Amino acid sequence: MSHQVFCAVIRGARAWVEKAEEEFKKARGEMGDDATIGFGEETAFCLPMAYVLMGLEARKVKDLEPILEHCRELLGPVPSEKLWLPYLGDGLDAGAATMLAQEVTTALMYGRGWKPEEGWQGFISDTIMRELGIQLVDGRMPGFAAILGPAPTAEIAQKVVQDLQMRSILSFLVANSDGKTMREQLYETEVIKPEMSMKDCWDVFVVPVGPTTLDAIHVLDWSIRSALTFGGRGLGESRECIDYTKKRIHAFGITFGPIPDDWYAVGAAAILLGYPIISDSETTPEVRPTGVTVREAIVVEKDPDKMVPTCIDTRAVKVKIEKVDIPVAFAAAFEGERVRKDDMQVQFGSKFSTAFEYLHMVDPASIDDGAIELTGPDIDSVEVGGAMDLGVEVFVGGRAMQRDFESILERQVHIYVNHATGLMHTGQRDLVWSRISKKAFNAGFRLKHIGTILHAKIHDEYGAIVDKVAVKIYTDLKAIEGRLTEAREAYRWRDDRLGGMTDESVDIFYSCTLCQSYAPEHVCIVTPERLGLCGAYNWLDCRANVEINPTGPNRPVKKGRTIDVEKGEWEGVNQFVYEHSGHKIRRFAAYSMVDAPMTSCGCFECIMCLLPIPNEKNPEATGVMVTNREYTGPTPMGMNFGELAKMAGGGAQTPGMMGIGRLYLTSRKFISAEAAQKRLVWMPKELKESIKERFLVREKELEEEGLWEKIADETVTTEMDGVAVHSTEVSHPAATMEPIVY
Ligand code: SF4
Ligand code: ZN
């Protein structure tokens, strides 16, 4: 590290530590030693940086004292002007001190009830971290950039952030220069808008974190927690966690203008976690690999057009730029974008009109590849803000195409259409609702472009099975009705097909190891009656993916000799899981949550665990409670989703606890080794409602009519005793069943 950089880092770090010490002293006097500090319900990891780097669970003012002592140790003596250090060591220690000190300062602010101003994110919750994790896992998001700005001009800010968006890389905006922030520059250029909610900002991959340099800690705090959640690491495993962020999190920092000392200190912190810094200022000395560091630590790129490509090269981020010939921008980053009523040119479906989409295979000789046909008027024909009927029929042909793949390909329509800016799409089949914005319309977007998108993307991603794609678009109601009958027959056929499939009817299950990039020991075994715990992959999807990408994350798994029918244990599955879990998991039972249950990575839709519900007749009665990611409130276990998830995540096998996909709750194989759905005694209301229809079918099969009604939710109680009382009152079957033992 050049001497200049080194001195700046140390000076900056000292200032951060001094500020934290000052705040700490003040807090001691004003709040007292025992006052609660930190980020409350937002995280289960107290002060995440201290949790990882020091193995410390700080919850009160007095817990901050050892952190500050440690900061002082890390800082060491003031560097002499002549001393030259050939490596980063002490500079990185100063980076660690900076993070710990920044965390202390922010934890005290939050402890006093401070909240970020409207339009700034502030602390990033565990919930967001998990949701984001999924996108990092499935490749929708290749990495993130922490930008310390503003940029020299609003246009440069726009250029750099859009370059990142185009590659689906998340931008975190931090800091200011004389009160000016990058957020203002992006408002000016309409990359984001002041009226956007924080959720909208996340959806378009641009997150204003905070207007001060101190806010950088939120980004670092977020990234270190991914090592805990997805890497399966724990309290005090600093080396492993840093190793994890270095290897798995493709992040980098961007700084605009000459770097002040306080930024240098934050930069050292980022470098410690493995994130290089790219600066646009010629006054910044570069820190290139020296033999001690493997990678560049600080790189200068003065050309705004080359900024993002340089970042990507430096951090070796893998990206795929999508090129689709339409008049609006197209990238995964735009997937979650909403089109508001006021910004809308036209909409289709929902309660406003008839709309459907239907993809099916045809004889390749019967279609022309790339043919796009519109039957009926285009969107110029309706008034601004109006509604139109819309049918989208996609014809695909290819030697490797099968009818079973239709639903998987059809589901991509939703994803692909959403990737275009100014297009919004929700739902599927004949339950779609989509909108086109005025901006997209004015840029020249017309209905045939939907065909352009589908043609390009299906070829691009499903080239292995599809040779030809043609699209017919209908806006004429008669034409739509003419095609709906066949479409609806196909939808029904697909439902019945998976619905009727049982685990017994197949010899092969599928594995999914997509999440191993984050939880190296995790393996999902997907069976016809149990989908992947993220809820995104069922057996048919996995089978299709094997065909499409034989060396990908899904592999066929031969069941082999049956070891236990009740618990769902097979020799072939055990062997596969053993081999693919780094020889960590020896046994795997598909239908049990207590004996060799499936491992849980970090992105499960729901988490379930045992819940004691003692009563007079049966003092050891045990039920099972479930909670879902969206429900952040308390549960009868005394923990919320995040806290429970922390106990089960990271690819570990945790008897009595398990991450699952929503649909598994109504499967015939739902913990059938432990008496199935009859054990379910509590779940959040929204989850309960969402599975109602399927559950009512299932309770009939179990000859337990009325079971759904007997399950308590948060409107009944969130206390363990409350569930016990309620279960007895309503004669819940679990109250009189044998306890679950393990
Ligand atoms: Fe991850 Fe399992 Fe979903 Fe695959 S099926 S993406 S391994 S959670
Ligand atoms: Zn996962």
Which descriptors would you attach to this protein?
742 residues; alpha/beta; 4-stranded mixed sheet; 23 helices; binds iron/sulfur cluster; binds zinc ion
Question: TL;DR of this structure?
Answer:
By secondary structure, the protein is α/β, with parallel strands linked by helices. 37% of the residues lie in helices and 15% in strands.
Please tell me about this protein's structure.
With 742 residues, the protein is an alpha/beta fold. 37% of the residues lie in helices and 15% in strands. The protein is built from 23 helices and 23 strands. A 6-stranded parallel β-sheet has the order 3-2-1-4-5-6, with helices on both faces. A 4-stranded mixed β-sheet has the order 10-7-13-12. Strands 8-11-14-9 form a 4-stranded mixed β-sheet, with helices on both faces. Strand 4 (251-255), helix 11 and strand 5 (277-279) form a beta-alpha-beta unit. The chain is globular and about 75 Å long. The structure holds iron/sulfur cluster and zinc ion. Residues 512-515, 524, 532-534, 536-537, 601, 603 line the site of iron/sulfur cluster.
Architecture blueprint of SSEs:
Blueprint: H1 3-31, H2 48-53, H3 64-75, H4 89-111, H5 126-137, E1 144-148, H6 154-166, E2 170-174, H7 182-188, H8 198-203, E3 206-210, H9 216-229, H10 238-248, E4 251-255, H11 261-272, E5 277-279, E6 298-300, H12 304-315, E7 344-349, E8 355-361, E9 372-375, E10 386-388, E11 390-397, H13 406-418, E12 423-426, E13 433-437, H14 438-442, H15 448-462, E14 468-474, H16 477-499, E15 508-512, E16 524-526, H17 539-548, E17 554-558, E18 562-564, E19 569-570, H18 571-580, E20 606-612, E21 622-628, H19 641-648, E22 657-660, E23 680-682, H20 685-690, H21 692-701, H22 707-710, H23 720-729
Parallel strand pairs: 1-2, 1-4, 2-3, 4-5, 5-6, 7-10, 8-11, 9-14, 21-23
Antiparallel strand pairs: 7-13, 11-14, 12-13, 15-16, 15-17, 18-19, 20-21, 20-22
Helix pairs in contact: 1-3, 1-4, 1-11, 3-4, 4-9, 4-11, 5-9, 6-7, 6-12, 9-10, 13-15
